[in-house]
Prior knowledge:
Elements: H1 20-23, H2 25-28, H3 31-34, E1 91-93, E2 103-106, E3 114-116, E4 119-121, H4 123-154, H5 161-177, H6 182-189, H7 193-210, H8 218-227, E5 237-245, H9 248-259, H10 264-271, H11 276-279, E6 283-289, H12 295-301, E7 313-314, E8 320-329, H13 336-366
Antiparallel strand pairs: 1-2, 3-4, 5-6, 5-8, 7-8
Amino acid sequence: MSFTRGHSALTARVPGWDRLSLVILLITSMLLVACGGGGDAEPTETTAPVSGTVAIAGDPTPADNTAPTSADAEPGIGTEEVPPSAEATDSVQAPSGAGTPEATAEVDRSKPAAVVNGEEITFEALDAQLEQRYGAQEIERLIVESLVRQEAEKRKVTATEAEIDAELTKARLSTQAQGQNLDQVITQQFGSLDAFREQLRLNLYVQKIIGPQVQVTDKAVQDYYNQNKQQFSTPEELQVWRVVADDQAKATAAAKELRGGAKLDAVIKKHGSKKPNLAEQNADLGYTQVQQLPPDVAMAAANLRPGQVADPAPTQDGAFSVLKVVARRGGQAKPLTAVRPQVETAVREAGISERVQGLLTELRAKAKIETQFKLPQAQPPAGVPEEQPAPGEPAPEGTPQG
């Protein structure tokens, strides 16, 4: 019986996922914390498997168990890459590097997983190793998803396909804005669009379960706005003039004339390089955001006030560059009245995020879970006292004795 499929890391490592911090990472970034930390996997007396697809966060910890599991999982989000198992019809990507194959075709479990100088490595041996290393984390991940699903059903919380489509659109727009290809990310990190949509569904459940508990007050909105004005500012743009001279003497003369108010065209004509590869760099760069300027220009111009000229700086071409910031615009925070809906959304998301840990801890603490793997001991939510044993009763296993 094969071990569950592994799960690749995504989270904040992928640029452009800031908008998904609530949509995707609410569950996955806090699971081990919510469930009381990590733990080594050891067999217990019970054998009830749990299925599901919520990814678990945390570093893989070697486990000592040898009991197989029948749980199968779809790809999800984690914070540490886990090797994939050898499922019968999965395409397996081999590690890159010298001496390693780039990829294999569909896995055939009727054949050995590998043959080394005539010695076979079986899929059973591979599965046992994966199970020992990652079994507890995978089971914990699946349990959390099952708990979220059950709680959603209990509260009659649903997530429609239209709502999932809307979250998918947000993800696509966010990744496009950062030059990422969402379809490629989904294929690499989740294996399929259906698996990604399932993650969106689970996180919608969490949002809807916790959302009613969050009160968006005027004070909370004002405080968030005051503390995060940069989020609601228009991008600052700089108008920059650049003169590239063949030597430092000409660059120094160009800087002096620019400080004296000389026109750019006149300075370029007098001191600018005539070499084709350098002459084309002499220009009014127009209004541009700092991060969109060439790195050397951005570093020199970022802290200049309008009218200031930077000292000549050597270039990689052996020439010298002179920059003048003609003007700056933007960078001002929009008034709260203009961005209040966005601020309220941010406050609501922050409130939900703060409560995720408590929800997951509460669900796990009151659940009856049977598994062959040793799981982290659930901790009570913040502010909830631990239940004390009655006088004369033995303390629960793992309780410190006085």
